[in-house]
Structures are given as structure tokens and as C-alpha cells.
Specification:
Chorismate synthase, AroC fold, alpha+beta, about 30% helix, five-stranded antiparallel sheet
């Protein structure tokens, strides 16, 4: 319960942070899709720890093993695709203090309250290491979207702490995003972001920020009325990621400062008859259904909960104590969260694409 997502394109992730491995089972992927397994590995490399000096020093290659669902290691069979990444650099001893005290703002206390037991080593299922399965599955979803609708999903770091970049969602490229270890395509702002992360990290503290994501050339008509609106499913998907605290689409909260005459997206004619709007304050979704304009969302991430500074907490008996973070953790999760956001967005779109074709493509 709670480890599966999607209706027709459905994933189930498994594994703990310091167990034998983590992975995912993907069900519903259409057959005869020629997958680029190297592209799956490339997205996992973008997510993996130890990739730069501003990320956790845990050393994991995160090499994916595709166990089932492919013919000759490439063509999808229409059967479940199982993928596994084995944990190599395990240090459960770093978390022995968790047996005595709950880490502030972590899931230790709430998991203990809910289940009466917890995977103390690294937070278990609450660890960001669980997202390996999501990123691997999302890489498949991105390839499906590209082939079926020429859809592209790109995310980048928009803000770190109080430093914010201005990025054109229409013009940004993967190469520009990946040119910086902080994954901000604005070079001058990226340098400031890196310096801020370094400074805060040296103080034993952490910081958060905002990731922005664009879906270019989304298929129109995706999303269902009322409860399965596309933005509602996008919100649930990205807010299921660790450390997320906020979601915006299109104009977001800033749209509340506008009048209706300023905010409405006027329709303009196109030769091919498709919908087109003069502006995109709706963020590509109206009435819960995609209109074909770029889908633009933003996701807020809190500061990393584990910090080296001593903090007040309680032990499992409810007695007051203090705790300073140990283990290996990111001073800022955002650079590694970029492929996670892309993955969840792609999974939602792939699922809705299959649902749309299943209901509305007979005539």
C-alpha cells in the first residue's frame, strides 16, 4: 500500500536506503517500443549521489539492471518491466542514534507512530534513495511520450534559498541545464547558487528552493474531469517526492494578484485547427485538461532535514534530548531532484496519454 502509482501506466517501487537494493516494476508500457537503456542510466546518473562537491559524498554507481520485460535488451514486450539498482556503499552504523532519538523534520517519528517499527538505517522507504525506481520508470515514460507525441519534459533549478534565476521555458535546453552542477541554466546565477550552498553547508546547515519544469508539445486532451484533473494528478505526483512542500502551475500564486481581464488566456486562430492561446497563464491546462500549450509547473523543496547542528528532539520514550545529524547528506537536495521532478511529470503524462487513447481514440 502506498508504493504504487498510475492507472494504465503503473509503477511500483521497492527497497530501502541501506538494504540490498532499490528498484521498480513498470506495468502497462505498450509493446514494441524500442527503449534506449543508456538513456535510463543517464537519468539515474543525474540523480545519483556523489556527483559533485555540493551533493552527498555517498558513493553509488547506481547501475541499473533490467530484469524483465524486454526482448534482446531493447524492445518492450508489453509485460512488466523490472529494474533493480543494488546498494553498494551502505553504512547503517551512521544511523544508530536513531534508535534512541527522532531526527527533527524526518519521517522517523511518524513512521514509528504509524507502524510501531521503522527502518532506522537512512530512513528506509522515506529516504530519497527510493526515487531511483521513479527516475528509472520516468525515463521509460519520457521515451514513450517522445515517440507517441514528440513531447519533451525538462526541469531545472529556479531558486536556491534567496537566489532566483530567470529562465525562459520555451528556450531552455538540456545542455544548458546540465552545464552546471547546480542544474541552473543561467551561468551567472548558478555560480551564486553554488557559493550559497557551499557557505550554508560549511556552517553545518542546509537550504531549499524551487524547481521549475516545462512540458513542451504535450498532447492536447490529457486529463479527466473533476477528480482526475491533469494538474491535480501532477500535484500529487510531484508532492509525493521527498522534501516537497509546494506546487504551482502557470501563473501560480502570482496569478491571484491579477484581474480576470489580465489573467485570461485569449484563444487565437491556427491554420491546423488546434487550440492556441496568446498567453499561457493557465500553464497549459484548462478545466483539468491539457490544451496543447506548454505545461509549466514549479515545485518547492524544503531545506534538507539532516544538518550537523545540534537540535532539540525527544527519544522513543518521549524524553527530551538533543541530536546532531550524522551520515552523508546533501546540504541542498535540489540539484539531484531535477530528474526526479521530470520523472514524476512524465509518468503522469504517460498514464493520461494511454487513458486518453483508451477512451477517445476509437473514432
Amino acid at each position: 500500500m502506498g508504493s504504487s502509482y498510475g492507472d494504465l501506466f503503473r509503477i511500483s517501487t521497492f527497497g530501502e536506503s541501506h538494504g540490498g537494493g532499490v528498484g521498480v516494476i513498470v506495468e502497462g508500457c505498450p509493446p514494441r517500443l524500442d527503449l534506449d537503456v543508456e538513456a535510463i542510466q543517464a537519468d539515474l546518473d543525474r540523480r545519483r549521489p556523489g556527483q559533485s562537491h555540493i551533493t552527498t559524498p555517498r558513493k553509488e554507481a547506481d547501475q541499473v539492471e533490467v530484469l524483465s520485460g524486454l526482448l534482446d535488451g531493447q524492445t518492450t514486450l508489453g509485460t512488466p518491466i523490472a529494474m533493480l539498482v543494488r546498494n553498494k556503499d551502505q553504512r547503517p552504523g551512521d544511523y544508530k542514534d536513531m534508535a534512541m532519538a527522532f531526527r527533527p523534520s524526518h519521517a522517523d517519528a511518524t513512521y514509528q507512530v504509524k507502524y510501531g517499527v521503522q527502518a532506522r538505517s537512512g530512513g528506509g522507504r522515506a529516504s530519497a534513495r527510493e526515487t531511483i525506481g521513479r527516475v528509472a520508470a520516468g525515463a521509460i515514460a519520457k521515451q514513450l511520450l517522445a515517440k507517441a507525441a514528440d513531447t519533451e519534459v525538462l526541469a531545472w533549478v529556479k531558486r536556491i534559498h534567496t537566489i532566483e534565476a530567470t529562465v525562459d521555458p520555451q528556450a531552455v535546453t538540456l545542455e544548458a541545464i546540465e552545464s552546471s552542477i547546480v542544474r541552473c541554466p543561467d551561468a551567472s546565477t548558478a555560480a551564486q547558487m553554488i557559493e550559497r550552498i557551499e557557505t550554508i553547508g560549511r556552517d553545518g546547515d542546509s537550504c531549499g528552493g524551487v524547481i521549475e519544469c516545462v512540458v513542451r508539445n504535450p498532447a492536447p486532451g490529457l486529463g479527466m474531469p473533476v477528480f482526475d484533473k491533469l494538474e491535480a494528478d501532477l500535484a500529487k505526483a510531484v508532492m509525493s517526492l521527498p522534501a516537497t512542500k509546494g506546487f504551482e502551475i502557470g501563473s501560480g500564486f502570482s496569478g491571484t494578484l491579477l484581474k480576470g481581464s489580465e489573467h485570461n488566456d485569449a484563444f487565437v486562430p491556427r491554420d491546423d485547427g488546434r487550440l492556441q492561446t496568446a498567453t499561457n497563464n493557465s500553464g497549459g491546462i484548462q478545466g483539468g485538461i491539457s490544451n496543447g500549450e506548454p505545461i509549466v509547473i514549479r515545485v518547492a523543496f524544503k531545506p534538507t532535514a539532516t544538518i550537523r547542528k545540534e537540535q532539540q528532539t525527544v527519544d522513543s520514550d518521549g524524553k527530551a534530548t538533543t541530536l546532531a545529524g550524522k551520515g552523508r547528506h546533501d546540504p541542498c537536495v535540489l540539484p539531484r531532484a531535477v530528474p526526479m521532478v521530470e520523472a514524476m511529470v512524465a509518468l503522469v503524462l504517460a498514464d493520461h496519454l494511454l487513458r486518453q487513447q483508451g477512451q477517445c481514440s476509437l473514432w
